[in-house]
Structures are given as structure tokens and as C-alpha cells.
Write a structure and sequence with these properties.
- The chain has a 6-stranded mixed sheet, with helices on both faces. The protein has a 4-stranded antiparallel sheet with strand order 2-1-4-5, with helices on one face.
- It has helices spanning 2-36, 39-43, 47-89, 91-138, 140-145, 149-201, 207-240, 242-248, 314-321, 344-349, 365-370, 378-387, 391-396, 414-428, 444-458, 470-473, 493-498, 502-511, 515-523; strands at residues 275-282, 291-298, 303-308, 329-334, 337-338, 351-355, 432-436, 462-466, 478-483, 486-491.
- It has a domain at 2-248: ABC transporter transmembrane region fold, CATH 1.20.1560.
- With 528 residues, the protein is α/β, with parallel strands linked by helices.
- Bound molecules: adenosine-5'-diphosphate (ADP) and magnesium ion.
- Magnesium ion is lined by residues 314-315, 436.
- The site of magnesium ion (MG) has 3 residues, from helix 9.
Length: 528
């Protein structure tokens, strides 16, 4: 027993350490894996579900390790001692015990299999509820504005109620089986005692041996139940981490920056066109194509604008340049290199972006700017902020560059956020620039401020511009119009104004003031 106490505490210490380490390792690997997955994976996953899975698998696995380490070796020690002492007195008794241990464990495992089916169903409910929970909390402004609090809560409760129902079935089954198992075990032990008593009465054992054996059998009973407890926690860990390992089995994005150290230097060419689309077809899912036969060459320093109906594939086109998705067929080349072949890190270093949604992170303005260039010093930050038209308002904030801006920048206005994201792109200082509806979410005054920042940003860079307002693209070198996922026309604003194509029509509509005209403009996302 002393040995047992020592062993259980020593292994208990290692168990704690192991479970803390396993937690760190599992979490690290999960995050590392998520960062390696392609954009496509996240199109159909909820953030909350991703987090809920991580928590469950980590808790169940580390819980198992802890329980296992705390008790398993003591249990083994007890079993060995009991078997040896029993064997010395009565080989039959030892044999009987040796059969009981694995049989009981096996029976537990059998019950567990059915138990797992319910457990998996429950986990699914936890995941769905958790996913929605995180989404609702993230979008609480909308929930409040539409006063859908009750609906969200009911939706959440439905899933949790379902898990209670499932638990009732699961637990009833488990405990019914446990009564049967343990009942059978008690019957077996009853006969063990009978054997001992009868053998003593017949004079095979002395009274002293009988007392010893009875004690021994009592000690032997405990490990039988704890063995099945380990099996149970193990099954729980297996079910709990099921989805975790399914995520780990997903295919990585090829040439992903976390998977790859910097990789070989890419031989960017200055002679080749900056961006080339070579007969590109693309669809997000199945064979439903969003882009067809895209052939386009963008020269160095050129400003090129994309015009087309909302949902026409403009964002998709720039997604291909960033290699967020790979073309279904054809090739996209950046500075002479096929985007499929270059390491993603090197490629994305060539491209600065400003999206419609500023997508800042919690933390200070300084931290957000450093996202563009971690090595930038205060002068560089100030210079970028000044050129992005953001310095004035930043300096008026009580903490200046050290102002905390809240989750996704909620403490700033739309125009302020967007000017910070312009400054962030400025610091990244990439030769190619993608502006996807960068000013679409802003009012006219903020738009003008941001637009001035964008002009600074576009200087000396090859720029791909998707804009909702024709006036902002009247000064570009070329306009590309998209119709039905195909390129319709390519030309300078002056040329396209004459061809009676989409751009010319839009221009005419904007000049006129008819209701039908406004409707069409809105369809093209050009008027709000
Ligand atoms: N992640 C996605 N998964 C599946 N379909 C998408 C995805 N993103 C966009 N689409 C579809 O692709 C088409 C083009 O979308 P998009 O390029 O965003 O249009 P635009 O930017 O011109 O408004 C739309 O029909 C849209 O429904
Ligand atoms: Mg778009």
C-alpha cells in the first residue's frame, strides 16, 4: 500500500505534466493546421465550431491522460501483487481472477461502443450551438437591431435540450449495463468466496490463509471497476477528439507559408507583365464556373479597373491573384511566375490589399499598422499614417498610436478604420495593389479622405481597382468589363465611353436621372 501511494503520486505528477504538455501540443498543432488550410475550408466552417472542437478534444484527451496516469500504474501494481499472492495459495483462484479482469474490461468496451454513437450526436449539437453562439456574439449589433435575442437564445437552447435528451438515453443505457456487469461480477466473487470457504472447511486452507485470501479478493475487486473506468475515459477521449483528428487530416494549402520556411528566393521578373491571366476558368464548387476564358495582361505600373454586375466575379478574379483559390483551368502568372508554383508567402508579399471591410484586429493602432511591416519605426508609422490621411485623427485620439481600437476596430468609425487599413497596406509596400470596393462602405466625406490616401498608395504601383463609383475610376489606364463571368470589353475609359458597352451605358445612366437608370446602376453596385 505504501508502494501504491508513492507510485500513484509520482505518476500523478507526471500525469499533470503530461496533460499540460499534451494540451499545449494539441492546441499548437490545431492552430498550426488551421493556418495551413486553404481559404476554401473556411468557406463552410463556423469560427465557433472550430473553437468548440478544439476545447472538447483537448479537455477529453488531457482528462484521460490525467486519470490514467494517476491510477493506472497503481492498479497494475495491485493486480500483479494480488495475482502472485493468490497464485501461491491457490492457482485456481489466480486463474479465475486472470479471466475476470480482461472479461470485465471487454464488456465495458462493448457498452462503450454504443455509448459513443450518442456521444457523437451530442458533440454535433454542441458544435452547431457553439458555432452560432460565437456568430451571434460577434454580430450582436445586428441581433440587437433586429431584436432577435429571443430567437437566438431559443435556437441555442434547442440544441442543448437535445443533448439533455440524448444524455438521458445514453446514461440510462450505460448504467443499466453497468448494473448487469457489476451484478455478474458480484456473482463471480460470491463463488470465489464459496470456493475459499469450502476449501477451508475441507482443510485445504488454514484459517490464516482463508483470512489472507478474503482480504486479497477484496483488494482484487477494486481494480476491476477502475479498469473499466479507464476504458470509459479512453472512449470518451476518442469520441471527443474525433473531429479534431478529422481536421488534422484535411489537405493543406499547397506551398503554405507556415508549412514552409521562407523557401527558395523567387526570381521575380521585371520584364514580364505584372499579372497575366492565361485562359483561366474558375468555379468555387463542382463544375459551375464563375469565370470563363479570362485572358488579360496587366503591365507594370498600370491602373486597371474592373466593372461588372454585383456577383459578376470581380472579387473572385483578385482572389485568384492572391492564390486564395487556384484556377480550375488555365494559369495566373505574377511577374512571370505561375502563382501555383511560387510559395504563397513570396507571392502575397508582392500584393497589398485594401478590402471593403477594413478587417483590423483588436489591440492598438500601432499594432495594427505593424501588421504591414513588423520592423517599421515610429517615423515610418507616422509617415504612412500621414500619407493615408490618418495622422490627423490618430493624433487627436487621447492615446494616439497607442489607442486600443477593440475587436475588429469597433471603436473607430468606418472611414477611420479604412484609413488605417490603407496605412497598413502602405507599410507593406508591395508592388501590386488590390483595392476591392475599398471605399464602398463609406459616406461621401470619408470616401474622399480615404480616396486621397488611396491615391498616395497607388502611386508607383500596379493597381487592380474594383470600385462602386465611376468617378473614382475615370482616371485609370484601362477598364475591364465583365459580363456573365467573361471579359466583355477592355479599353481606356475614353474608348469604352464610345463603344456603347456596359461602361458607356453606366456613364449615360449616371448622367441621366431616370428611376430605371438608377435601378440598373444599383444592380452594378455603382450607386447606393
Ligand atoms: N466562397 C465562395 N464560395 C462559393 N461561391 C462563391 C464564393 N464567393 C463568391 N461566390 C460566388 O461567385 C460569384 C462571384 O462572386 P464575386 O466574385 O464575389 O462577385 P463580385 O465581387 O463581382 O460582386 C457569385 O455568384 C458568388 O455567389
Ligand atoms: Mg466583390
Amino acid at each position: 500500500m505504501v508502494a501504491g501511494s508513492v507510485v500513484s503520486n509520482v505518476t500523478g505528477y507526471f500525469g499533470d505534466m503530461m496533460s499540460a504538455r499534451i494540451r499545449a501540443i494539441l492546441s499548437h498543432n490545431y492552430f498550426h493546421k488551421l493556418l495551413r488550410l486553404p481559404q476554401r475550408y473556411f468557406d463552410s466552417e463556423l469560427t465557433g465550431t472550430i473553437i468548440s472542437r478544439l476545447n472538447r478534444s483537448i479537455t477529453s484527451v488531457s482528462e484521460f491522460l490525467k486519470i490514467f496516469a494517476n491510477g493506472f500504474f497503481t492498479t497494475i501494481l495491485t493486480v500483479v501483487v494480488v495475482l502472485v499472492v493468490a497464485g501461491l495459495h491457490s492457482p485456481w483462484l489466480a486463474l479465475l481472477l486472470m479471466v475476470i479482469y480482461p472479461t470485465f474490461t471487454y464488456l465495458t468496451a462493448l457498452t462503450s461502443r454504443k455509448w459513443q454513437v450518442w456521444e457523437r450526436a451530442k458533440n454535433e449539437h454542441y458544435d452547431v450551438a457553439g458555432g452560432r453562439f460565437a456568430e451571434a456574439v460577434g454580430g450582436l449589433r445586428v441581433v440587437k437591431a433586429f431584436t432577435t435575442e429571443r430567437r437566438e437564445l431559443e435556437h441555442f437552447d434547442e440544441h442543448y435540450d437535445e443533448t439533455v435528451v440524448l444524455t438521458r438515453r445514453q446514461s440510462t443505457f450505460w448504467h443499466r449495463m453497468d448494473v448487469l456487469r457489476r451484478g455478474a461480477l458480484d456473482v463471480v466473487f460470491f463463488f470465489v468466496y464459496v470456493i475459499i470457504f469450502v476449501a477451508t472447511a475441507q482443510g485445504t486452507f488454514s484459517i490464516a490463509s482463508m483470512v489472507l485470501l478474503i482480504q486479497l479478493v477484496n483488494i482484487a475487486k477494486a481494480p476491476v471497476t477502475s479498469m473499466s473506468f479507464y476504458v470509459d475515459t479512453l472512449q470518451r477521449a476518442i469520441t471527443g477528439s474525433n473531429e479534431y483528428f478529422r481536421v488534422m487530416d484535411e489537405t493543406d494549402e499547397p506551398l503554405n507559408p507556415v508549412a514552409l520556411a521562407d523557401g527558395p528566393a523567387v526570381d521575380w521578373s521585371d520584364e514580364d507583365p505584372v499579372i497575366e491571366f492565361d485562359d483561366v476558368d474558375f468555379g468555387y464548387a463542382g463544375d459551375k464556373l464563375v469565370l470563363h476564358d479570362i485572358d488579360l495582361t496587366i503591365r507594370r505600373g498600370e491602373r486597371i479597373a474592373f466593372v461588372g454586375e454585383s456577383g459578376g466575379g470581380k472579387t473572385t478574379l483578385v482572389n485568384l491573384v492572391l492564390k486564395l483559390y487556384e484556377p480550375t483551368s488555365g494559369e495566373v502568372r505574377v511577374r512571370g511566375q505561375s502563382v501555383v508554383d511560387v510559395p504563397t508567402k513570396a507571392l502575397r508579399r508582392q500584393v497589398g490589399v485594401v478590402f471593403q471591410d477594413a478587417s483590423l484586429f483588436s489591440g492598438t493602432i500601432r499594432e495594427n499598422l505593424l501588421y504591414g511591416d513588423p520592423a517599421a519605426d515610429d517615423d515610418a508609422l507616422e509617415e504612412a499614417a500621414r500619407r493615408a490621411n490618418a495622422l490627423g485623427f490618430i493624433q487627436r485620439l487621447p492615446d494616439g498610436f497607442d489607442t486600443e481600437i477593440g475587436e475588429r476596430g469597433v471603436k473607430l468609425s468606418g472611414g477611420q478604420k479604412q484609413r488605417i487599413s490603407v496605412a497598413r497596406a502602405m507599410l507593406k509596400n508591395a508592388p501590386i495593389l488590390i483595392l476591392d470596393e475599398a471605399t464602398s462602405a463609406l459616406d461621401t466625406k470619408s470616401e474622399r479622405l480615404v480616396q486621397e490616401g488611396l491615391e498616395e498608395l497607388m502611386a508607383e504601383r500596379t493597381s487592380l481597382i474594383i470600385a462602386h463609383r465611376l468617378s473614382t475610376i475615370s482616371a485609370v489606364d484601362r477598364i475591364v468589363t465583365l459580363r456573365g463571368g467573361r471579359i466583355d470589353e477592355v479599353g481606356s475609359p475614353e474608348e469604352l465611353a464610345q463603344t456603347n458597352g456596359i461602361y458607356a451605358q453606366l456613364l449615360a445612366l449616371q448622367a441621366s436621372d431616370s428611376a430605371a437608370g438608377r435601378k440598373l446602376l444599383r444592380r452594378f453596385g455603382i450607386l447606393r
